[in-house]
Amino acid sequence: MITETIRKFVGRLFAPAPKGPLRITRDKHGIDRRNVSRHAIKVCEVLRQHGYEAYIVGGAVRDLIVGLEPKDFDVATNATPEQIRPLFRRARIIGRRFQLVHVVFGQEIIETSTFRAPASEDQETDEHGRILRDNVFGSQEEDAKRRDFTMNALYYDPHNEEVIDYHDGVADLKKRQIRIIGDPVKRYREDPVRMLRAVRFAAKLNGAIDPATRQPIQTMADLIENVPASRLFDEMLKLLTCGHAMDCLRQLRADGLHKGLLPLLDVVLEQPGGEHFVELALERTDARVRAGKTISPSFLFAALLWQQVDVRWKQLRAQGEHTIPALSSAADSVLDEQTEKLAIQRRFSSDMREIWFMQPRFERRMGKTIYRMIEQPRFRAACDFLQLRAAAGEFDSVLAQWWMDLANADDVTRADMIEEIARQPRDAGDAPSSSPARRRRRPRRSGPRSSSPSGD
Ligand code: ATP
Ligand code: MG
């Protein structure tokens, strides 16, 4: 009896201590509380005052640790949506299956969700193992386990300024290493979008995907095809607007992940001219994102698909179709082909059409038409698009600049500019598309565009 007690005691002395999460203090993680959304802090404080645990979690913690400005702030708590909602003046429960709460402060929404448990064996999946529902509440530890990458499973407690880390995420983050939580094959099967996310975070953080996390991607890439189109569109948009779009696309291609995304992107990137155009578009987008400016998805997709539209447009015109109907059918066929996989929503595709359809109209400058063009809601975007074409050597850069100046001018200056055009002799200014003057102004190269344009 006594020996048994002693044995137990000694056993307990030498047993490994139960491994709790790391608790990383401010001096180690380096998050400056002043960079944390005060609304997110408020949500955590209120929940805490009511006896719940609440932490800032996910992308915001990751970005704060590496000194990037978070896009938005999410909170995770052990309170249920029904318990969260009454604590805030403007809060609504959203989602049907897995509910979470949007706490609204003016322009800012703090997405507040209850700790979730990871996928269990009896979870509903599709025939490829993709999880269809993810709706069981759990503990914080379980919540950490069902997150995708170690660096995305960090919980920042604004009260004591500690970061709670179950999977060595802070260490990975400092090494810029993207490491999936759990078995990569299982996690990608549950949700193939995680493969795209791995690529995006690697590009965004200028890091690398850990070898074990990376290894199954090539062979599992096809699973992307089972992901609903709307979800792919959202992910693709995040990818293109993460500030490192070109790196992401190159990596997606290297890993065979691009196939299900934009079916023609591969072709586009392989054409020397196409690659140049797409690269220019993405460089500009990246520069805007890094400068904290907004991005228009329609503009971006219009640019990505333009080469395809342009090629078909030219073919149709060569077959004798008129300019505008030819452009219209070219746009239709490209959009049909592309949107099958990637649900480019109707509002985007109609804006894309408007941007494209304005392009031939920039070729002629005639008073009446110019005024009508200015009134179009997409005039500004179409002018920006024209700059891109000029930079790619598709359009005369001086003329493109004239349109940009017009877009930027006030009404009086605009009237002057348009009047000035009217006074110019026809062949010094603009002429019908078949005239030599136009050809001089807007050189078209038949072979691959290798040289970059002058003037931009
Ligand atoms: P960003 O908002 O900068 O794109 P993020 O990491 O915040 O990056 P969100 O899509 O906002 O990405 O997701 C918030 C958090 O939810 C992630 O940090 C991660 O913990 C978890 N998460 C998101 N998507 C998945 C997924 N597919 N599988 C598992 N966990 C995920
Ligand atoms: Mg986020």
Automatic annotation (TrEMBL):
The keyword Protein transport does not apply. It is an enzyme of class 2 (transferase). Residues 54-179 form the Poly A polymerase head domain. Residues 209-266 form the tRNA nucleotidyltransferase/poly(A) polymerase RNA and SrmB- binding domain. The keyword RNA-binding applies. Its EC number is 2.7.7.19. Signal peptide: none annotated. Residues 419-456 are annotated as: Disordered. Adds poly(A) tail to the 3' end of many RNAs, which usually targets these RNAs for decay. Plays a significant role in the global control of gene expression, through influencing the rate of transcript degradation, and in the general RNA quality control. Belongs to the tRNA nucleotidyltransferase/poly(A) polymerase family. This is Poly(A) polymerase I. It comes from Achromobacter arsenitoxydans SY8.
